[in-house]
Write a structure and sequence with these properties.
By secondary structure, this protein is α/β, with parallel strands linked by helices. The chain contains 5 helices and 4 strands, in the order E-H-E-H-E-E-H-H-H. A hairpin with a 4-residue loop joins strand 3 and strand 4. The chain is globular, with a radius of gyration of 15 Å.
Length: 160
């Protein structure tokens, strides 16, 4: 298990979203992602993690998305990945918009907590360097997300 320092900030909240649940999702994502390296016979490029999760409202999400991605809408999750420092700590700020999370869960007919877990896992994987800029990257990242969510007893989020 990779030690993680987790700072959770609730600027906006939801009654089902708890620090305990978020911690479980983050630890599970880190463990599963780290096991990919072990299965390949490679050491993970990090030995510990430091993440800030900030749950915000639509205004903050829109402002950040505009400022950092030049997109003028509130997005579901933004990950600011800072890489791995000389001590082996991978660090990141992960911003999740509660309003978008709620709307997407309803629209996609998913349980709120299942979608919240997926967005947290997605953010952690971005923090670890995963991306979905092309089909090959997307397939790798989505496959890992599916595996992690399965460990959490959550169905594949990519099935309709």
């Amino acid at each position: 298990m990779v030690p993680v320092e987790l700072d959770i900030q609730f600027i906006a909240s939801h009654p089902e979203l708890t620090s305990e649940r978020i911690t479980l999702w983050v630890n599970t994502a880190l463990d599963e992602a780290t096991s990919v390296y072990a299965e390949a016979g490679l050491p993970a490029p990090y030995t510990q993690a430091q993440f800030t999760f900030r749950f915000c409202d639509a205004d903050e999400a829109k402002t950040l998305n505009h400022q950092y991605r030049a997109k003028d809408y509130a997005t579901n999750v933004l990950t600011f990945e800072y890489g791995v420092d000389e001590a082996g700590t991978v660090s990141s700020d992960i911003i999740i918009c509660i309003a978008v999370l709620e709307a997407e869960a309803l629209e996609q007919k998913k349980a709120f907590l299942d979608h919240a877990a997926h967005l947290c896992v997605h953010g952690v994987l971005h923090a670890l360097g995963y991306d979905h800029l092309d089909d090959e990257q997307a397939e790798e990242m989505e496959g890992l997300e599916i595996d992690i969510l399965q460990r959490l007893a959550i169905a594949n989020p990519y099935l309709s």
